[in-house]
Design goal:
Order of helices and strands of chain A: HHEHHEEEEHEH
Number of strands of chain A: 6
CATH superfamily of the largest domain in chain A: Winged helix-like DNA-binding domain superfamily/Winged helix DNA-binding domain
Radius of gyration of chain A: 17 Å
Largest sheet of chain A: 3 strands, antiparallel
Oligomer: homodimer
CATH topology of the largest domain in chain A: Arc Repressor Mutant, subunit A
Strand content of chain A: 15-25%
CATH architecture of the largest domain in chain A: Orthogonal Bundle
Structural class of chain A: alpha+beta
Bound molecules: manganese (II) ion, zinc ion
Strand order of the largest sheet of chain A: 1-3-2
Number of domains of chain A: 2
Shape of chain A: flat
Chain lengths: 141, 141
DNA sequence: TGGAAATCAATAAAAATTATCCAAAAGGAA
DNA sequence: TTCCTTTTGGATAATTTTTATTGATTTCCA
């Protein structure tokens, strides 16, 4: 759990309950899409508008407080900005697991340089089956 | 240029002019989004409907004849399915360049295994500035 | 404790995607 | 070929997703 208030102040954003709670649920659950955020915030703030969620997500992404995690064929998820990492995305249950770059980042950036490409951001996602789902599938057979 | 007709037959899809030309323009340009495909097909087939483009893209992706390339904050592009590779995406001009995995793929899959994750597909995109745009920016200063 | 600036909620509007329905075309069998 | 079944396309409507607008409310600093 981070210090959301300073994160907002540093970016010249006012700290409203709505905004704080959006950050809170994203942080709590790790990776959430717009609808998941909306339904969770609704529970504690029944009057919030979906447009408010969209607006806040947009500004928080712009200010790099949160980060978009695009997911093929589905809606993007969002996470609190943290150290660079990549994602293991389960195509069975939809779970998203963080994974450290370690030696990977060096290989990627050297490849970018080789192509005379000025690398600004890397987005790596591995799609497949998480341990839980593998076990579940194995049980059945 | 591939043999689109056999690619369709192998997947039990009928070869219509519309479908063939969709594959053609994707192949010609490398990476195109829905609207780009639509406008290019329109030129040679003025009666085609946008819904037809959507419908065909959907089936072609399902049958793995083409592949979706998600792009952050923009519409996905599509490419003819080919050997695994990753993308250098220019945030200035929108160009997409293919890039071979080489040693990278080994590192990624060993990382997946380490997390007991059954890897099915890898999606790696590097966002930044292509050589053309770097040069253009340097000229100005 | 004002008051400017930012934000919220409600709502409308726009954009993107999917569904429906019937005519037309494709492709296999005779 | 011709016939017949199935798939597909085009028009259009419907749905879903996202963005814009606007006036009321809230934040926060002087
Ligand atoms: Mn993450
Ligand atoms: Mn490519
Ligand atoms: Zn899973
Ligand atoms: Zn460029």
């Amino acid at each position: 759990m981070g210090d959301y208030i300073s994160m907002l102040k540093q970016n010249g954003l006012k700290t409203t309950f709505q905004r704080l709670y959006i950050m809170q649920v994203i942080d709590d659950y790790g990776h959430l899409d717009i609808d998941e955020i909306y339904s969770k915030v609704l529970l504690v703030h029944p009057s919030i508008s979906l447009a408010t969620i969209y607006k806040n997500i947009l500004t928080l992404v712009e200010k790099k407080v949160i980060k978009e995690v695009p997911i093929e064929g589905k809606k993007s998820k969002y996470e609190i900005l943290k150290q660079d990492h990549f994602h293991l995305i389960c195509i069975e249950c939809g779970s998203v697991e963080d994974c450290d770059y370690e030696e990977l980042s060096g290989v990627v950036s050297s490849s970018s340089r080789h192509h005379h490409f000025l690398q600004k951001k890397v987005e790596l996602s591995v799609y497949g089956y998480c341990k839980k789902c593998i076990d579940k599938i194995n049980e059945k057979s």
